[in-house]
Amino acid sequence: MSGMLREIRKFSCIAHLLAATAGLTLLLGACSGFAVKEQRKGQLGAAEQQQLNSSLRVASASADAGQLEAAERLYVQLSRHFPNAPEPRLGRAYLALEAGDFILAGKLFAEAEERSATPAARAEALLGAGRTGLGKGDTAGAKTHFAAASKLAKGTPAEAWVANGLGVVATLEGDHARARTRYEEALQLSPSHPMITANLVRALAQSGAENEARRLYAKYPASHWLDGDGAALSRFFDERKGAAAPSGAKVQLYSARSRDRALAAWGRLSSEEKDLLGSLSHRVVKARIPKKGVFYRLRAGPLADKAAAKRLCGLLKGRGRDCFVPAGKWTGGNGAGGEERPGTAEKNPDARAGGVRKIAVSPTPAAAKKPSSETPEAGEAAAAAGGAKVQLYSARSRDRALAAWGRLSSEEKDLLGSLTHRVVKGEIPKRGVFYRLRAGPLADKAAAKRLCGLLKGRGRDCFVPAGKW
User: Fold this and answer.
1) Which of the two residues, 39 and 185, has the higher pLDDT score?
2) In what order do the strands lie in the sheet containing 281-289?
3) Cα-only R_g, the chain
């Protein structure tokens, strides 16, 4: 999958494509539902129209509830029963797009366009084709589809998302002034939409209107932004300050008995949590704790202030990582192993925590065999012995479930990289055999629910089944 595609999000009828390039997160939204009655008016009888509308609502509800197989099956049946209706193919196309099957998604969007009898329907199909192009890394193809959709989308729900899509393309092409114009058009059509607003903030900053970007960002409270966009934008501005904030706040991620282990932890964390830690430097701080000995604390920074550090720790903890904000500022020293003198306000933070502060990382085979003073803390140990789990997918075949894990573990590496997977066979009365993809172990149900919340925020299906791992 192209490096520009990071995740696909879905909120109710709105499906969002999230693309990343050069460290900039770009969101492309599109409403996958539109007025069925308008599109098919005059082509179906009243009874048929009512049946189609009702069945489409059932299929959409099934997809929203995570029953993807049932939704896909119903869309296929509707495609056969209503061969000239575009809606069932659009529904299947969005499912394929979310699953990362861009070939199938492109084929279905094209078929939906052929069957579209109104400009609104064609615009929706072309919009989906443009999103598919971005997913494949075909920026030129996406631009062509968005441009065609913009001529048809006037006055329809798709108009704002077409403008947003053209803004994404402009940003990928490096034309931030044009991107700004497109995002402003989209925001006029969908006032204060958090995802479009986030795009506009970035475009303003990159087109030279830094102060205007900051004012727009400050205009909204933290609750306005979706899925950590507020923290992401805060980091975005921090990055633009560059070396101007050498004495900002910091976070502590790990504590070990040796410098090598602390540095190895940074290697893992900076890779697995690249979206959160990629713009930060690291430092290993040596400290002696009375009656316990010497510890090497892994810290990252600089962050703008303690509020930014706390937001970062909140995001890391939501992914099962250990993190806290120590006292004192980020001071000089080299990133590989510079030392700083602990502040008087944090004489023994490790003792306060009840032992060595650790990050939840997958142990090496040697570490798994030989317990030591640096084995996972009690909650993590309990997880390894039989913690909670999450269900990510359900399919008719084991191969499809395993293929889903291959996609998910790659696309959501920051959330799933430390977990293992299982495929559980189950039979549902009157429906047959299904293969359920599950991941774990997690410390407890609360941790599993937090993980599901993060995955759902990215448009992934997830729930916490009963029983232990």
Assistant:
1) 185
2) 249-256, 293-303, 281-289
3) 25
- pLDDT-derived band at 210 (thresholds 50, 70, 90) equals confident
The 3-state secondary structure of the chain reads: CCCCEEEEEEECCEEEEEEEECCEEEEEEEECCCCHHHHHCCCCCHHHHHHHHHHHHHHHHHHHCCCHHHHHHHHHHHHHHCCCCCHHHHHHHHHHHHCCCHHHHHHHHHHHHHCCCCHHHHHHHHHHHHHHHHHHCCHHHHHHHHHHHHCCCCCCCHHHHHHHHHHHHHHHCCCHHHHHHHHHHHHHHCCCCHHHHHHHHHHHHHCCCHHHHHHHHHHCCHHHCCCCHHHHHHHHHHHHHHHHCCCCEEEEEEEECCHHHHHHHHHHHHHHCHHHHCCCEEEEEEEEECCCEEEEEEEEEEECCHHHHHHHHHHHHHCCCCCECCCCCCCCCCCCCCCCCCCHHHCCHHHHCCCCCCCCCCCCHHHHHCCCCCCCCHHHHHHHHHCEEEEEEEECCHHHHHHHHHHHHHHCHHHHCCCEEEEEEEEECCCEEEEEEEEEEECCHHHHHHHHHHHHHCCCCCECCCCCC
**Backbone torsions φ then ψ of 31, nearest 5 degrees:** -80, 120
pLDDT of residue 252: 94
CB atoms within 10 A of CB 185: 19
Phi-psi region of 95 (alpha: psi -120 to 50; beta: other; left: phi over 0): alpha
C-alpha separations of 204 from 194, 201, 271, 343 in Å: 15, 5, 29, 39
* Mean of all residue pLDDT scores within the chain: 75
Contact 298, 259 (CB under 8 A): no
List, in order, residues 6 or more apart from 239 with CB less than 8 Å away.
23, 279
Name the one residue in this structure whose structure tokens are 């910091």. Answer: 250
Express each pLDDT in 254-285 by its tens digit.
Answer: 998 888 888 888 888 887 887 788 777 888 88
C-alpha distances (whole Å) from 53 to each of 16, 42, 72, 87, 391 are: 24, 15, 16, 9, 30
pTM score over 0.85: no
Q: How far apart are CA 380 and CA 390, in angstroms?
A: 16
Nearest partner of 311 among 402, 237, 361, judged by Cα: 237
**What's CA 106's distance to the chain center, in Å?**
22
SS (HEC) of 97-143: HHCCCHHHHHHHHHHHHHCCCCHHHHHHHHHHHHHHHHHHCCHHHHH
Q: In what order do the strands lie in the sheet with 388-395?
A: 388-395, 432-442, 420-428
